[in-house]
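Bumping with the actual sequence this time:
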Amino acid sequence: MNLPERLKRCRANANLTQLQVSEKLHVSRKTISGWENGHSYPDTTSLVKISDIYNVSVDDLLRDERLLEHYADQEQAQTTNHKVMKGSYYLSIVLWLLGYIELFQPAGIHSLLIPFALITNAIVYLTHFTDWRRFRNTKYTVRAIISFFLILLAHVMINITDSNFLKYMNQSELHFVVGFIMGRILLTLIISFNFEIILFFHPIKK
């Protein structure tokens, strides 16, 4: 007997409807139906709760090779995701530092690849980031928002006092100044956002 059939039988033996089980597990009735039809599998936490509700052991529920393969694949996917996320996080630190080279252009060093790499890496990191629950903490979220604006303000002040910025503002033509300012604003936002990621979106230890 596979897991879907076992779940159906256990629910019937417990004289419970799919709706009643869904309310106990705090999931939708459609989710329970999906488990019993083999369209999806419960996670390990739900499986433990199900064993309590149906008064059966977890071992009895786990006697399904497909389910064990599913959990193995899920674990592998989570491990791979964590490795990508961790690598991307450390890369964001390097790129953030390189962002200042693009901002101040020491010795005339300039490359549009730096802002592009900053944006690309930030997207990759956030798509692999999993610990969004930390932002359910209102204090943490408010602190992150306030910090971002303070970081942005600090970078704006750095721009204003930069000798290269003042030189271009005083000596260049209007169309060049507008383009220069827009580029600086965009780069400042990118650098500030990456610094925010480093401070508040750090990966959890595994």
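The tokens above came from a reply further down the thread. The CA atoms of residues 90 and 198 lie 9 Å apart.
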